[in-house]
Design brief:
This protein has 232 residues and is of the alpha+beta class. The chain has 5 helices and 11 strands, in the order βαββββαβββααβββα. The protein has a single domain, classed as Roll (Pnp Oxidase, Chain A). β4 and β5 form a beta hairpin. It binds flavin-adenine dinucleotide. Flavin-adenine dinucleotide binds next to β6, β7 and β10.
């Protein structure tokens, strides 16, 4: 099973079908990948013996599978290996300020992916996954020293299918009670954008190396606009 095209709007599984705020749900491949492309941080949830655990992490994907990495001793990833995990990517696009706090909201794009995570052990698969995670954040894998065998041994990599995913998107104004509309209170949206500043060279850089194009290209761009090697 893989993500459905947008032609049919996608088809959620029973457990990824949005029940609250149904008009905001999206299940199509392009909708889900666009949100994954724009994001840099995922919140990864697992069930541990001492309760649920959710931690923020970087991620990458190739359109079919999602990749996570961490230290070989990473508790969350070790717990997730061979088990069901839940990965959430969220963009906060605006604060929605209503005429009463009851109707305050947020404009957002979010994706929830559920599925079984599996450890990648073979070296080629691990390198490919790590390149996807690296380049998903900033596409600079090819302009820095590649990981050594030792780096690879110290890194745990998990993959999970993107097959079971849902997206939810809120845009627009607050939705106030009709009787409050003519009231004396302000209502509207405060937009939020994540934008890159110019890169700052490390204080200990003595080689004279210039930042690669992948870095200089970020300045002034939003997270949504950053160049990425993998696009649907
Ligand atoms: C930035 C942000 C802030 C939010 N703040 C609140 C808040 O304060 N209170 C609140 O009640 N809700 C909030 N939401 C919405 C929240 O994520 C849930 O969608 C909502 O609470 C309904 O929960 P539920 O368990 O009834 O979902 P259900 O509709 O029962 O969920 C069923 C399935 O739908 C999918 N789904 C549900 N929510 C999402 C989602 N956000 N993105 C992608 N797939 C989803 C999942 O696959 C889930 O298993 C916020 C969302 C975002 C992105």
């Amino acid at each position: 099973m893989s993500l459905n095209s947008n032609d049919d709007g996608g088809a959620p599984s029973a457990r990824t079908r949005v029940r609250r705020g149904v008009p905001r749900a999206r299940y199509g491949r392009e909708d889900i990948l666009a949100i994954l492309h724009a994001g840099m941080i995922a919140h990864v949830g697992v069930t541990t013996p001492d309760g649920p655990l959710v931690l923020p992490m970087a991620y990458g994907h190739d359109g079919e599978r999602l990749y996570l990495h961490g230290a070989a001793a990473n508790h969350l990833l070790g717990t997730g290996d061979g088990h069901e995990v839940c990965v959430t990517v969220t963009h906060l696009d605006g604060l929605v300020m209503a005429r009463t706090p009851f109707h305050n909201s947020m404009n957002y794009r979010s994706v929830v992916v559920r599925g079984r995570a599996t450890r990648i052990d073979d070296e080629a698969g691990k390198r490919r996954a790590l390149k996807l995670v690296t380049d998903h954040v900033v596409a600079n894998w090819d302009s820095v020293r590649p990981p050594s065998q030792s780096d690879l041994r110290k890194t745990l990599v998990l993959e999970m299918p993107l097959a079971e995913a849902s997206a939810k998107v809120r845009t627009g104004d607050p939705i106030d009670e009709p009787e409050d509309i003519a009231g004396p209170w302000w209502a509207g949206v405060v937009p939020i954008t994540t934008r890159f500043d110019s890169a700052i060279t490390s204080a200990d850089l003595t080689s004279g190396a210039e930042p690669p194009d992948s870095i200089t290209a970020l300045a002034g761009r939003t997270a949504d606009e950053r160049p990425q090697p993998y696009r649907a």
